[in-house]
């Protein structure tokens, strides 16, 4: 199959969603170690909103193609490619050069959708080392949700100290990372305590195998409640902290002795001096009787390990809504509204 151009979204300016424009561009040259992929689906992350608003830690490259998480079909391979053949179904790794071990910030560490062009395009060229095979039972839409949110959740539970059967996992909210963490923890025989904001979402969370659900809008001291609900009241062995400084105090209250708080995001806000004076936010870190571990997605080996577990256990990602390729701005607005349960996907 011979193709020379691709339709793609590009971020012209970090002024919000209006900074995105749909364009047609030539397909980059396929080098000896490269793979040409026809991208079928891309899933969105809160990171994509931060980049669009100019709030991301590292500024994107000029006219960057957004989004890191994609799944598609191999169309062409370079002469030295050994891992893939035309027809293979693949997913993009978040950090293209992060194969194994801890992350190292050098020239090989290209994060898609920021320092490197992402996946919101019909065709993309990637080094073969930055791709992973799709689990055989998943669709392209489902597979597109794995590279960032799922790998982040897997890293939080298995990338450092490893989750064991009977451990307690505390999740916050019903975004992609939290839902994947619930699925992985249940499959591993762990106990899950989940927080959410509504009775409707609570029922859906219970449908994933969670016995203990706390409505954080009704229980201001949900951290202490989570500890009471944990096995023998000892607290959570793993906490996926997606809220940031404004929820850290509750996470500290819920933590078991020598437990792990996996710090992932700041969806709850960045806190402030008043919050810290009142014993919350970053001030509560001094009360931690365990570990605080910052999670930055994960390497390709973790990604591949996770995919094997997903396939063996028949886990299917939870997709809330699928938008069309021309509906990027609407999809981002829907994600930004925080009413979703699981992942938001753009079909390409």
Task: Walk me through the structure.
The strands form three sheets. Strands 3, 4, 5, 6, 7, 14 and 15 form a seven-stranded mixed beta sheet that branches. The chain has a six-stranded parallel beta sheet with strand order 10-9-8-11-12-13, with helices on both faces. The model is unreliable at 272-279 (pLDDT under 50). It is globular, with a radius of gyration of 20 Å. It is 26% helix and 26% strand. Strand 11, helix 7 (245-254) and strand 12 (255-263) form a beta-alpha-beta unit. The chain contains ten helices and 15 strands. It is α/β, with parallel strands linked by helices. The chain has helices at 46-52, 140-143, 146-158, 176-187, 199-206, 222-229, 245-254, 273-277, 300-313, 328-336, and strands at residues 5-11, 20-26, 34-43, 69-77, 89-92, 123-127, 131-133, 168-172, 191-196, 212-215, 236-241, 255-263, 291-294, 319-323, 343-347. The two termini are 18 Å apart.
């Amino acid at each position: 199959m011979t193709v020379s151009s691709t339709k793609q979204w590009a971020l012209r300016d970090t002024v919000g969603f209006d900074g995105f424009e749909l364009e047609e561009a030539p397909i980059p040259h396929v080098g000896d170690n490269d793979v040409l992929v026809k991208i079928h689906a891309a899933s969105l992350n809160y990171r994509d909103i931060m980049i669009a608003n100019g709030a991301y830690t590292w500024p994107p490259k000029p006219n960057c193609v957004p989004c890191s998480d994609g799944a598609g079909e191999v169309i062409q391979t370079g002469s030295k490619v050994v891992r893939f053949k035309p027809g293979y179904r693949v997913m993009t790794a978040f950090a293209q050069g992060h194969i194994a071990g801890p992350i190292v910030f050098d020239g090989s560490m290209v994060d898609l959708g920021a320092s490197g062009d992402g996946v919101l395009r019909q065709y993309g060229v990637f080094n073969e080392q930055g791709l992973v095979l799709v689990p055989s039972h998943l669709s392209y839409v489902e597979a597109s949700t794995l590279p960032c949110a799922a790998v982040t959740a897997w890293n939080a539970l298995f990338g450092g100290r490893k989750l064991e059967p009977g451990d307690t996992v505390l999740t916050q909210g019903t975004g992609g990372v939290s839902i994947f963490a619930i699925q992985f923890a249940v499959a591993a025989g762990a106990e899950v305590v989940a927080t959410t904001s509504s009775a409707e979402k609570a029922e859906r969370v219970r449908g994933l195998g969670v016995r203990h659900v706390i409505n954080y809008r009704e229980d201001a001291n949900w951290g202490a409640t989570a500890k009471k609900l944990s096995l023998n009241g000892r607290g959570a062995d793993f906490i996926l902290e997606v809220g940031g400084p404004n929820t850290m105090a509750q996470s500290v209250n819920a933590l078991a002795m020598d437990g792990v708080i996996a710090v992932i995001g700041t969806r709850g806000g960045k806190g402030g001096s008043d919050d810290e004076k009142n014993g919350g936010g970053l001030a509560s870190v001094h009360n931690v009787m365990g570990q605080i571990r910052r999670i930055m997605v994960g390497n390709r080996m973790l990604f591949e390990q996770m995919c094997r577990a997903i396939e063996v256990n028949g886990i299917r990602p939870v997709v809330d809504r699928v938008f069309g390729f021309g509906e990027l701005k609407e999809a981002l607005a829907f994600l930004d509204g925080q009413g979703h349960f699981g992942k938001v996907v753009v079909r390409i």
